[in-house]
């Protein structure tokens, strides 16, 4: 029977013997490798294997024990396993190359298939994020103030039976407009994508008009300008209703991202232009329509769904849409129209509507602060002077209005608590059509020639 101390000696000796055996096995393997160049051969062939070179004991110990090297160890382990598998399964270098090529092709096909599936599944999410990103990029502001984002699906914003989201947005707008202090009121409401029908657009247009905000949204994503014109005409989205003056509708969607040819994606990712346009409107002077080469250029967008001829741009603009055009090496909005098509040119031009809504809200806020003061000659003069100072500050080139006239500011002769304020303002209108006229005349030697040439 063995003594206890002999048993302990036997158990502690076993790991030592195993270590020596492993060390001997490593040395034996290195000796076999010596005739081919030693461990240096592995270092020149396998990336990262220098970290376990037996001759570099300190580096090897750090690599094998430090927690921060765990990912590198796992990568190297998989690489070595792959090498071992290739070497053990093939008898010649030619077979090894062929086997590796087959595995590479199989892995590439699998990766391409999985990436294609991932891109397809996340396509809608990607479009939403890229749409929101273009709003911020086009504000050209480091930190955009006073922005509220509602996480809602477009289908939820179309649903007139379950109006939970519509009511939530209505409440947000109303809570900041239907009050005495208007410093937190909203000016722009952006709904990217097509709302689907005239009744839904009307619902949102009335909501925007009631709270004096400009609704920026999009028409349907279609392939050709003729399709847009035909389907827009059939949708009856324009009209002489005053609330339609608070709606902008874009067409010809933007290329948010080019297609991934590596995974055989067949189509570019298209996104609605409304958010990008709204960001540009946020950045642009209120009296200036965000349209044309100088003011309408959309940042960080390379293309649109379809090219447009000059006549097609004019037709879309006349319908009441804001087409996106790829010309002069950039994408730009090319209209200042609202969905209002009545006789009032001001209500057809969104810069005019925005200026009048803004001035109205400023005057409402100011007069709310002067409510319940006795309307004496002194009070009238003081209020009049402050109104004139405000209107003067927004009058002139590079500002909001061309000129103004206060035609009436007096107390109602019958209902004494009612004060009438009648202001006539002349807004700025964008130049849209340039009419070129040239004439010539020659009368030398009795030969006369005269002509006129006009171009629109």
From TrEMBL:
<dbReference type="GO" id="GO:0033104">
    <property type="term" value="C:type VI protein secretion system complex"/>
</dbReference>
<dbReference type="Pfam" id="PF17541">
    <property type="entry name" value="TssC"/>
</dbReference>
<protein>
    <recommendedName>
        <fullName>Type VI secretion system contractile sheath protein TssC</fullName>
    </recommendedName>
</protein>
<dbReference type="GO" id="GO:0033103">
    <property type="term" value="P:protein secretion by the type VI secretion system"/>
</dbReference>
<dbReference type="InterPro" id="IPR035576">
    <property type="entry name" value="T6SS_TssC"/>
</dbReference>
<feature type="region of interest" description="Disordered">
    <location>
        <begin position="1"/>
        <end position="23"/>
    </location>
</feature>
């Amino acid at each position: 029977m063995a003594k206890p101390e002999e048993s302990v000696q036997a158990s502690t000796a076993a790991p030592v013997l195993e270590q020596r055996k492993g060390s001997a096995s490593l040395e034996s393997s290195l000796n076999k490798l010596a005739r081919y160049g030693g461990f240096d051969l592995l270092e020149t062939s396998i990336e990262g294997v220098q970290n376990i070179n037996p001759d570099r004991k300190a580096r090897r110990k750090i690599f094998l024990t430090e927690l921060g090297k765990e990912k590198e160890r796992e990568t190297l382990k998989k690489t070595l396993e792959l090498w071992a598998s290739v070497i053990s399964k093939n008898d010649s270098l030619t077979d090894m190359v062929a086997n590796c090529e087959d595995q590479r092709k199989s892995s590439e096909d699998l990766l391409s298939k999985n990436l294609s599936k991932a891109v397809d599944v996340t396509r809608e999410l990607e479009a939403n994020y890229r749409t929101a990103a273009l709003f911020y990029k086009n504000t050209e502001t480091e930190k955009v103030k006073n922005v509220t984002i509602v996480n809602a699906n477009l289908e939820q914003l179309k649903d007139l039976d379950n109006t939970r989201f519509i009511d939530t947005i209505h409440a947000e707008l109303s809570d900041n407009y239907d009050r005495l202090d208007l410093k937190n009121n909203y000016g722009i409401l952006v709904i990217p994508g097509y709302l689907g029908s005239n009744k839904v657009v009307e619902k949102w247009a009335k909501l925007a008009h009631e709270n004096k905000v400009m609704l920026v949204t999009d028409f349907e994503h279609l392939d050709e300008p003729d399709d847009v014109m035909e389907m827009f005409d059939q949708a009856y989205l324009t009209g002489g209703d005053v609330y339609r003056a608070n709606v902008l509708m874009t067409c010809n969607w933007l290329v948010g991202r080019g297609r991934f040819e590596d995974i055989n994606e067949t189509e570019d990712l298209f996104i609605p232009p409304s958010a990008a346009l709204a960001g540009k409107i946020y950045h642009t002077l209120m009296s200036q329509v965000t349209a044309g080469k100088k003011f309408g250029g959309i940042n960080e967008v390379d293309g649109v769904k379809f090219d447009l001829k000059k006549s097609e741009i004019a037709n879309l603009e006349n319908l009441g849409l804001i087409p996106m055009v790829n010309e002069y090496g950039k994408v730009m909005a090319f209209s200042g129209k609202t969905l209002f098509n009545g006789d009032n040119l001001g209500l057809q031009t969104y810069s005019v509507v925005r200026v009048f809504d803004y001035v109205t809200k400023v005057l409402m806020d100011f007069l709310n602060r002067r409510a319940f003061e006795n309307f004496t000659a002194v009070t009238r003069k003081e209020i009049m002077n402050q109104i004139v100072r405000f209107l003067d500050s927004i009058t002139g080139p590079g500002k909001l209005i061309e000129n103004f006239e206060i035609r009436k500011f007096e107390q109602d002769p019958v209902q004494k608590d009612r004060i009438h304020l009648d202001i006539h303002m002349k807004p700025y209108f964008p130049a849209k059509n340039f009419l070129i006229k040239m004439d010539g005349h020659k009368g030398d030697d009795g030969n006369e020639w005269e002509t006129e040439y006009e171009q629109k």
